[in-house]
Design a protein that fits this description.
Elements lengths: L68 H7 L9 H22 L9 H30 L7 H14 L4 H13 L15 H4 L7 H22 L27 H25 L1 H27 L6 E2 L6 H6 L2 E3 L4 H4 L7 H6 L5 H15 L4 E3 L3 H11 L9 E2 L13
Parallel strand pairs: 2-3
Antiparallel strand pairs: 1-4
């Protein structure tokens, strides 16, 4: 068994990490990283990554990092750990106003004398902008789940419930499973999302054309989020043949002490769904779809794409039990810039390495903290300048599966497959 002594983030004394130790036997505790056990001492990858492509960083060094969590913490300015309720609320208000202003502007589209094509273009612009501003609200709810929104656990959980329910996400169930993701990032056995198929399981499908792979990415963006919420699609094999959704209090994702938190979140979620249904009754499905449901689908697609690309690319290693350590998991994370959308998304993609190192740091300090840790992380810091959509396509084509064997592994695609399918 791999021993991990730093599963919780550095700031977890002020926050809360809920690790399902019944489904996941690892036990986490705050504090400094320790030397890995001999069982996790594997430093030789079982396979070679795909040849480096333009914009990509090199894979991280295979040796265990020479720095500790305390070293990283000491490199970050102390004020970056400070959380301000009023500053966080200002972002909520700004995003809410942004959505309201966009919706108000959209209300004039159909009544305008513009030709139909121009109206469709304006609606598309509204859906794109509203969906991305709403993604920013989701990121703020995400900070509540990490206790980074304010110093008050009560305020964080109340605001997280409100914001996530407004976006049809059950707050506490997501918070618990997401904490498990942070504790076990890129662990084949215990991560919560985007667990790759093995080479033998994929079989002949590895030889599918790039167009077919692209279609798979589109399906993932459209259906991936609800499939994850309701069926835990993409989750680890340890949940096979178990109830593993984000709504049942008896789900394998949760511990007994989560029961009433799940029920509470389900009630809030049902109230939000009821609100949407009532709006449809009052204004009609088409109107609600135009103003809310389509931007909501943009949010869902963004969440899937963001999470996928934060930990999926040809140079990002994954680990089985014999090689996984919490530090390696934290560093198997990629920073990517999406241009001006970084601002709308509150820098969730271009400071994500820092977020995995300490998720209690609020987003408005994340850029400064990221710059502070880069010199210390050195080659262990992964940042990719590839266009976001191009990276999504590249990963969909080349990150198809992982080798059947080995503990320290890279993705396998059609161009670096070392064996023929059975």
């Amino acid at each position: 068994r791999v021993r991990l002594d730093s599963l919780a983030p550095l700031g977890s004394a002020q926050g809360e990490v809920m690790t399902n130790t019944k489904a996941n036997p690892r036990k986490g505790a705050s504090g400094e990283a320790v030397k890995p056990d001999p069982a996790a001492a594997v430093t030789t990858p079982a396979n070679k990554p795909h040849a480096r492509m333009p914009g990509q960083p090199r894979p991280p060094p295979t040796a265990h990092p020479p720095f500790t969590m305390r070293d990283i913490r000491n490199a970050i300015p102390k004020h970056c750990f400070e959380r301000s309720l009023w500053r966080s609320m200002s972002y909520v208000v700004a995003d809410a106003i942004g959505v309201a202003v966009l919706a108000y502007g959209a209300s004039f589209i159909d009544a305008s004398p513009l030709p139909a094509a121009a109206k469709w273009a304006l609606w598309a612009g509204y859906w794109f902008l509203a969906g991305n501003v709403m993604t920013g609200l989701w990121v703020l709810a995400h900070e509540c789940g990490h206790q980074a929104f304010s110093k008050s656990k009560l305020v964080n959980n109340v605001m997280g419930t409100i914001l996530h329910s407004a976006l049809l996400v059950p707050y506490h169930p997501w918070r618990v499973s997401h904490a498990n993701h942070h504790s076990n990032c890129c662990s084949i056995e215990h991560d919560e999302v985007f667990i790759p198929s093995t080479r033998s399981a994929l079989g002949e499908a590895l030889a599918e054309s790039p167009i077919s792979s692209l279609w798979g990415v589109v399906q993932m963006l459209v259906f991936g989020w609800p499939a994850y919420m309701f069926c835990n699609a993409g989750g680890p094999r340890k949940y096979d043949n178990k109830v593993a959704d984000h709504f049942s209090p008896w789900s394998a994702l949760f511990l007994p002490q989560h029961y009433w938190l799940v029920v509470q979140s389900d009630i809030a979620w049902l109230v939000a769904v009821g609100g949407v249904a009532y709006a449809i009754h009052l204004f009609g499905f088409t109107t609600v779809a135009a103003y809310y449901l389509i931007p909501y689908m943009v949010v869902n697609a963004n969440l899937v794409a963001i999470t996928y690309l934060q930990h999926t690319d040809t140079y990002v290693p994954h680990y089985r039990e014999g090689a996984f350590t919490n530090m390696r998991g934290k560093l198997s994370t990629v920073d990517r810039s999406v241009g001006f959308i970084d601002y709308l998304w509150h820098h969730i993609t271009d400071t994500h390495v820092l977020h995995h190192i300490d998720h209690s740091i609020p987003h408005y300090h994340a850029e400064e903290a990221t710059e502070a840790i880069k010199p210390l992380l050195g080659d262990y810091y992964l940042s990719d300048s590839t266009n976001f959509l191009a990276a999504l396509y590249r990963s969909g084509v080349h990150c198809r599966c992982i080798p059947d064997d080995g503990d320290y592994i890279f993705f396998v695609g059609p161009d670096n497959d070392t064996r023929k399918s059975d």
